[in-house]
Amino acid sequence: MDAEPSPDGRSAPLEVATAPIPTPYGEFRARAFESPSGHVHLALVFGEIGDGESLLTRVHSECLTGDALGSLRCDCGVQLRSALRIVAAEGRGVVLYVNGHEGRGIGLVNKLRAYVEQDAGADTVDANLRLGLHADPRDYVDPAAILRSLGARSVRLLSNNPAKAAGLREHGVAVESLQPLGTVANRHNRAYLDTKQARFRHLPSTGPRPDELPPAPVDVGSLLGSLHSHADRPHVVLKYAQTLDGRIATRTGDAKWISGEPERQLSHAIRAGCDAVLVGARTLLQDDPQLTVRMVPGSSPLRVVLDSRLRTPRTAKVLSDDAATVILCRPDADPARRRALESSGATVRDVAPGPDGLRVDEALRLLRSIGIASLLVEGGGRVITSMLRAAAVDRVVVSLSPTIIGSGVEAVGPLGVDRVADGIRLVHRSVFLAGDDVVMGFDVADGAAGER
Ligand SMILES: NC(=O)c1ccc[n+]([C@@H]2O[C@H](COP(=O)([O-])OP(=O)(O)OC[C@H]3O[C@@H](n4cnc5c(N)ncnc54)[C@H](OP(=O)(O)O)[C@@H]3O)[C@@H](O)[C@H]2O)c1
Question: Is residue 422 domain-shared with residue 393, that is, in the same domain?
Answer without folding.
Answer: yes
